[in-house]
Amino acid sequence: MLPLHRHCVGLVAVALLYCGLPARAAEPAKYLLDDTSAVVRIDVRQLVGSGVYRKELDKFVQPLLKNESLLKALKSAGIDPLQDVESMLIATGLTCHRTEVKGKTTALRSGALCIVQGRFDRAKLQGVLNQLAKDQPKDVKIEKAANGTIYDVSEFLGGSMFLVVADSNTVVAAMFKDQAEDVLAKAAGQKKTQLKYKAVQALVDSMDPKQATAWAASGEMVAGSSTQLASVNGKTVVKVDHEFLKDSGIESISGGVALADDVRGRMTLVAKDAATADKLRASIGAGLEDAKKGIAQAAGVNKDLAPLLDALKSVQVRGKDATIVGEGQASGPAFVAAVAQMLQFMEPKPGPNGVFVPAGKLRE
After folding, report:
1. Torsions phi, psi for 354 (to 5 deg)
2. Cα distances (Å, whole numbers) of residue 95 to 34, 108, 149
3. pLDDT per residue as tens digits for the range 240-256
4. pLDDT digits over 319-328, tens only?
């Protein structure tokens, strides 16, 4: 028996999502969605080895790693987070944006596929998840699929989440069950990822391995969505409108962040033509000015945000023809402030009936 309290389910899920993705292990692209339009790669080893991490972030991570229940689970799974962590790949596509209709309420759920790799002991890892399902059946449910086992942790999170141990080096978290089933099929060799948008592969191949975090998105990336109910022949149907990057004249966006004792970032945007690039560059410049004013005002109340303002002031945006390039740098404290603001923005918000929908949007 593994006597873990209910909260440990979430800790284990988080630990899995941050436990490693070595480039030498199974190729993570093997499990990408066929309609992948955007990818974020996080090299956790570079992050942990940076001066910024040691000076600014380690003090936040260590208390989490001292949680007794989490330590028991990780030990049982044979995982040492700080030793086994390498990187993580996060992918999204149109199939990550779906609607659910219940009566007159329409829920638009958006998420991503998280492909995590590391030096796992597959048997031990599955053993921990199986034990959690036995000890806490309301929080972790085991579902047998054609090509393996899916662990449903949706009940605990209040929103859709399915975990799959795809192979000895790979754990995948999916918001939708059919995506988890596809991962198992690919692991079994019954399916093969066939990227619908060839530009995505080129963007992924161009990611700088020296950057701790890199991202790439094609014009097919969903930038926003809206829904409305309509009656057709007496039946209620949902009309979904997606806004894509290409609708704003953007063909691709790529970039990354390098970490040392400070943080240096670079972003490249390719527009459909020079005229569109000029308009986008002006819009980006106006957005930066608004951000500076907002952070300056917030820093008057919260002094911790002052370094973030300095980072925004360092950002330079230039362009040539249809290409826009933005570069900037930040101190360690500015990076921490930025991460804190991002986490606050991403904090799950309660939807109808008090149900939390993490990583998703809820509209009525």
Report:
1. 75, 10
2. 9, 12, 22
3. 889 999 999 999 999 99
4. 999 999 999 9
